[in-house]
Amino acid sequence: MANPRNPNRLPSSSSSSSSSSRSVASPPLSSPPRITTSSRAAPPPPLPSAATPPLPPRLRPPRAAPPLPGLRGLRLRAPGGASLHRTARVFPSPSSYEFEIKEKGSHLLRLHFYPFVARGYDLSSASFHVSASGFTLLANFTTADPVLKEFVLWIDSDKLVLSFVPAQASSFAFVNAIEVVSAPKDLIGDVAIVPNQLEKFNGVSRQALETLYRINVGGPKVTPFNDTLWRTWVPDNELFVESDSTSKTLSFSGRIAYQKYGASREVAPDNVYSTARVVDGSDSNHNMTWVFPVSSGYKYLIRLHFCDIASLALNQLYFNIYVNGNSGYGDFDLSDAAGHVLASPYYIDFVADADNSGKVIVTIGPSKLSSPSWIHGLLNGVEVMKMNNSIGSLDGDASVVLVTENPVKRGFGEFVRSILCGFAFMSLLGIVFMLVMRLRAESGRTVLWSPLPTDVSGGKWGQGFPVASGKLEL
Hints:
membrane, four-stranded antiparallel beta sheet, 2 domains, 4 helices, transferase, Jelly Rolls, 11% helix, nucleotide-binding, 29 strands, Malectin-like_Carb-bd_dom
């Protein structure tokens, strides 16, 4: 079963959609400093199944970006494996790729890491940082297993600079393949609901996002060949809380009714909207719950996909939506939201923090508006994306300024800073010592005198204290 923590399995081939230009950069034959990509190539290979809906007619699989001279790095080739992952470029020092951006807006960035051993390099021992578009994407990253990292970045310039920096002077960075996809305009909205609060979260599209989970609820795995943006959707079995509900899964063989201003195939494919998990009328007192382990200290974009493939008529599906136990949407009427069309897709975006246990919990519960004979809850798909923190990082407290610093210069700088700090500390100790010695010297010369009488008569001391001119003993 696919690991839901890494929903994007490494595909053996790649492509692009009609609404996006897609670029794949695999390590070139010579040493490049920058890579400019292109997405014009031959038509795509045939789909694996005749029942699968055809991809858009302008779909073009990308070709490897042409190399430009000057990029530091070593090209390695593995003895076997998929063609996309048989090669890698190793970076013993900070290096960058540069991609031309034709249209400003949201872009998908996918980084393929497929460690192997070649020419004395064990890629599983690499430790490095990755940054792009002013954000830290990965910090002190290392992996022993094949992994695909997907990010969504807002790019408002004509170039995307992707940097790889070894974490230490003795380490190195590597990458097997890079994809840059111009995302459809409706892929990432700008406003999301904050559960249990009146205000909404604005500026979602300008955040850096990392895809953590992409789930096909109640259905099988959806491979990149069946997704116009070449995404992978995994089943929800490992994330669904079985004991919390007696739900059932549904599949729909009819046509998904995409609306002009609703969710498109680029938002989610037919195979996601044509399957669902539901709570029927016989289980009206139970919820459906999914639990997603995440990292604390970040906000998360939680996208829920809905498509009413269960109701026999309109306005027969009402339910409540909860995120981390907080009300996200009460008495949700899917018929009204989807334009009063059955089997019409719709999605809702929420922004929430992880709960105290480091989880994002999504719950679908029955509404009081439901009838006993109706479906009491439905969900077709879930996506969970990590949002950058306050210093622009998706991976810890390392800012982009820190991770892009040359580790050799960083080490020398740390050495100089340690010398300066040591000198400042010793100077401070010297000043404190001199002050203490001065105070001691002054206290040694201090004399405390007893009070003397002021009543003097006839040249003799009057009554009072006896004449005593000595130091007062304490």
